[in-house]
Amino acid sequence: MRRRNLLILAGSGVTAAGLAACSGGSGSGGGTGGSAGSEVEVFTWWAQGSEKAGLDALVAQFEEDYPDFTFVNGSVAGGAGSAAKDMLQSRLQAGDPPDTFQAHAGEELADYIASAQIEDVSGLYDEYGLNDAFPQDLLELLTVDDMIYSVPSNIHRSNMVWTNNQLLEDAGIDPSAIPADVDAFTADVETAAASGVTGLSIGMAWTQVNLLEAILMADLGSEAYNGLWTGDTDWNGADVTTAIEHFETLMSFTNSDRDGLDWTDATQMQIDGTAAYNVMGDWAVASFQQADMVANEDFGFYPLSGGEAIFGFLADSFTLPVGAPNPDGTKAWLDTISSEAGQLGFSLAKGSIPARTDVDTVEFPTYQQTAIESYANDTICPSLAHGAATPVRWLNEITDATSQFTTGANAAAGYQEQLASIAESNLSA
């Protein structure tokens, strides 16, 4: 039987202003009633690399579907959305929302819901046929008190290892041999580093949290990992201690300029042949493809594993903010990003897989084919670094603690105690 360990969002008890009427197009063109030239500001952090390529694909589909609307790019670059989220919160508090904004499906939306800053869009799910198009477990993840507050454009996987196969061969490592656990992976990274290259490329704090979550998934297993976010797993436990020790060791083989780099820079180190390994979400695959590198020849990939097949889950999604200047334009955008054509074009460009189950995926390259199979069969764990596991505040506190640890301001024992204290305060809030 297929196992699913999804965290269901805790109900906030807040009812946002509902949609009086969910009018919208079918994604086949003609618009939703907006006048010619009506602007739709789409707020994202997709400003570079494969993220920008994915956004461009969505914009092209939107302009084809809804020529009466004008797309306005509200993207803000930097730090997996940290800069964008800060600016967005300022705008929402000032009563100046964009027409729609990017978020991650899952607990990241909890604060927006509790603050009554986004609308219930479940009526659009009925209108656009999304209740049949999306898998039931995804619908459950999206549902809060019988309401849904965002529309996913895709599904990503966070716990992936990427390899430069030539550098592995040069170091005497068989690129086709997948490490059985984190100890074996760490040994391979150390071997690669001893050959004179960066063993593990990484960037600023959020990419380090992405590495941490992948290690926690592998070392703890899905049940205990998911328990970290519900209080069922002790953050002071021995398994977490082991994971932090693995994290500390792996960080010792990373590039010294990491805190000044983003994920694109860390991936570029592999493309340039200066770093053997990287642990990053599967948006990285598009960068390899754009560099004309061939999967399983020039670069390799596999999930960081402790023996259990785990899919580190996140999904990009879009919202209808309360007070959006052009709600009809927002609904048109949500129609496009949830359509078969929109999800196909977006995921092909970005390295993800469609959230819809009815998209023809024959065009997808090697990596995405494996991700489709894994999502259908592996145990699902929500991503910490990308908003599925915790509200924004909890993630920000973990990110700050991780930055203190990786810059030497805190020892491993103190770091674990800090993570436990953060969990306790957030679970009791």
Helix content: 40-55%
Q: Largest sheet, order of strands side by side?
A: 2-1-3-13-6
| Alpha-carbon distance between the two ends | 36 Å
Q: How much β-strand is present in the residues?
A: 5-15%
Main sheet makeup = 5 strands, mixed
Describe the global form: globular
Q: Count up the domains.
A: 2
CATH topology of the largest domain: D-Maltodextrin-Binding Protein, domain 2
Separate helix tally: 18
Task: Give the CATH H-level superfamily of the largest domain.
Answer: Periplasmic binding protein-like II
By CATH reckoning, the class of the largest domain would read Alpha Beta
Written description of the protein model:
Helix 11 packs across helix 18 (412-427) and helix 17 (392-406) packs antiparallel against helix 18 (412-427). Strand 4 and strand 5 (147-148) form a beta hairpin. The chain has two domains: 38-155 and 316-359, 3-Layer(aba) Sandwich (D-Maltodextrin-Binding Protein, domain 2); 157-312 and 384-427, Periplasmic binding protein-like II (D-Maltodextrin-Binding Protein, domain 2, 3-Layer(aba) Sandwich). The two termini are 36 Å apart. Helix content is 44%, strand content 13%. It has helices spanning 49-65, 82-93, 110-114, 122-128, 130-133, 136-142, 165-170, 182-194, 205-220, 222-227, 238-251, 263-271, 284-290, 327-338, 340-350, 366-377, 392-406, 412-427; strands spanning 38-43, 69-73, 100-104, 143-144, 147-148, 151-152, 156-157, 160-164, 198-201, 275-280, 299-303, 310-314, 316-318, 379-382. It is α/β, with parallel strands linked by helices and 429 residues long. The chain has a five-stranded mixed sheet with strand order 2-1-3-13-6, covered by helices on one side. The protein has a four-stranded mixed sheet with strand order 9-10-8-11.
